[in-house]
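Key result, reporting period 2: structure in, sequence out.
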């Protein structure tokens, strides 16, 4: 098998159901989920097994789910032969884990900056790349068929990355970096972000 095919040399790529220009919103949407998957792999590599086996297992699960999302996004139209793969259970799992991690993290009163431990900083990168993927999927969804679960999943996933970035810092004894000009904005301490 050859790694290169030369089929993309004219600026188009194959998707399920046809060919699109590489700067098409659909291609950018699933390409951004692939970029996100790479950053998750980096975060997994930065987390030690002893303290973070639970988070590492979850992140690998999420990598597989993002492949499912990417496949759904690469599909111009779902068919009987190519049904959508992303399901509601994926969202339910993220919400359950967010609730657990919100309780584990220290009380949150102010906005925080991305940072702290190296793995936590990488997880904040994952959070912001997830938001970018979400924006592309939202744009795509306005005009074309898209599995609606993918947009919801990405929305919850960014919240998940926020929660685990804080937990990683806490388990390592590293404080979150508070935005120094922030007022107290989270009056109830720990609470889930608005969705």
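The corresponding designed sequence is given below.
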């Amino acid at each position: 098998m050859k790694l290169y095919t030369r089929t993309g040399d004219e600026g188009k790529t194959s998707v399920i159901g046809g060919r699109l220009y590489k700067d098409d919103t659909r291609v950018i949407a699933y390409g951004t989920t692939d970029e996100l998957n790479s950053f998750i792999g980096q975060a997994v590599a930065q987390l030690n097994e002893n303290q973070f086996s639970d988070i590492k297992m979850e992140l690998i699960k999420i990598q597989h789910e993002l492949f499912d999302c990417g496949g759904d996004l690469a599909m111009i139209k779902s068919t009987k032969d190519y049904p959508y793969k992303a399901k509601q259970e994926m969202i339910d799992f993220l919400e359950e884990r967010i609730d657990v991690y919100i309780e584990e993290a220290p009380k949150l009163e102010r906005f925080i900056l991305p940072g702290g431990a190296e793995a936590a900083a990488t997880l904040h990168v994952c959070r912001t790349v997830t938001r970018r993927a979400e924006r592309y999927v939202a744009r795509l969804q306005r005009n074309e068929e898209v599995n609606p679960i993918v947009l919801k999943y990405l929305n919850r996933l960014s919240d998940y990355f926020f929660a685990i970035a804080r937990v990683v810092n806490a388990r390592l004894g590293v404080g979150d970096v508070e935005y120094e000009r922030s007022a107290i904005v989270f009056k109830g301490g720990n609470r889930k972000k608005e969705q």
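The longest strand covers residues 12-15. Strands lie at 12-15, 18-21, 112-113, 177-178. This case is discussed further under Risks and Mitigation.
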